Amino acid sequence: MDKIIILDFGSQYTQLIGRRIRELGVYSEIVAGERAVEPELLRDCKGIVLSGSPYSAYQEGAPAPNQSMLETGLPLLAVCYGIQWLTLHSGGNVERCDTREYGSMPVRFLPEARANPAWASFSNGLPERFSSWMSHGDSIVAPGEGWKIIGVSDRGVPAVLAHEHKPWFGLQFHPEVSHCEHGMDILSRFVFDICGAKPGWSIEAYLEEEAKLLRARVGAEPVLLLISGGVDSTVAGAFLLRSLNPEQVYLLYIDTGLMRKAENDEVMRNLSKLGARHLEAVDAEAQFLGVLAGESDPEKKRHIIGDMFIKVQQTAVERLGIPNAFLAQGTLYTDLIESGKGVGNKAQVIKSHHNVRSPLIEKKRAEGRVIEPLDRLYKDEVRALGRVLGLPEEIVGRHPFPGPGLGVRILGDVTKEKCDILRDADSIFIEELRARKLYDRIWQAFCVLLPVRSVGVTGDERAYKYVLALRAIQSEDGMTAQPFAFDMKDLFEISAAITNRVPQIGRVVYDVSSKPPATIEWE
To answer: Could you tell me which of 389, 398, 384, 403 has the C-alpha nearest to residue 275?
Structure first.
């Protein structure tokens, strides 16, 4: 298949670029930003993308593309940091912005964009002015040798650049983000018109490729999947059962005491339909709540939960007689990105996912005993894979639920009492969304129990009760998100339903934060 290589310099959006290119039907491969050219890597490669980065191009120790990548003669698209680095290293000037450009920002093409036939193939068909998505603290002041500015933001900042002699283009904005108007059109022009790539990738192709890799790596050895019953781990389970001999696949569901209301029965009912020969359930509520007692730091809670998963798993594999089994997880690329575990070594830690940065999981990963068949996919792609695997819509269409469960939706220390309060409130929230036919219009909805109480009135008496936050967002992939625009009548009635039926809650608030700057989960 034709492919596009993406050099990863640590951007939170790197995999999103790859995903968008795959949406166009062209295979994309993400590699470390500093990687040198190798014959196998360049096979069928039609173009190269330079990603963004949390670094500044002029910063000491900033990542840099290997010179051999720049000498391939292939078309190149440099995004944000990528074009800043090329500018700086071709004699141009990059400086800190007086005012950071962040979020939606109008961009307009200059007449030069249509004057050169090569540049016109990149810009033709696009409106002269459109809304881009910016996220940068540095700015190009003067282009490098051979580069021309062919588009600017409303503030006059260079936004689109083209090379005079090479099929190279640079964007100061992020076309891969769904909020960028014509972002897919821009990527399409680069992939098809500039690179001449032909489509040949699909989720079915991904399934076939990953299954071959899995069988080659595992052979006949047993594989144990820690399964929560959520979308990711259930799809991972179906994938393992499809790709391997079902006799070598073990599904282990651990009841942490941090699950939603009636979750245990629903999970076991759904998992039993997968056709697994080995399905185990472990009640570990006392163990998880015991080690979490008194801990309020969100990063420490995630590490504690991740380590306890491994300890419970180790006990289970001894009992099952498979002590050397591979450990499989439903880890997504978003988990790796936010945990600072992208392809390159320059990514920042946004929050440590329990299934990524737990010390015990890190140890098993270093030993080469961790299998993560979904680690190149986003949530919507996982759902697509689940449908290809034949999973029912009530499973693949469920809202995401974090692996640490309610442990990261209870701010502060975690207790059984707080879990029970949050379980009841969350159940009512989801029940109300379904009744109002809003559930399927929302990408993810949940409640957060805050570590504060407020004064209220109950039956003419003073009350001092918990504050609950509602969170409901719309997203395509979890990398960017906007709050769901409720009708205020719905919010009023949902709030009343919760405070009337959960006596420990006296006040309900609604989170209107987007991602970024916020994350979807609060911890």
So the answer is: 389
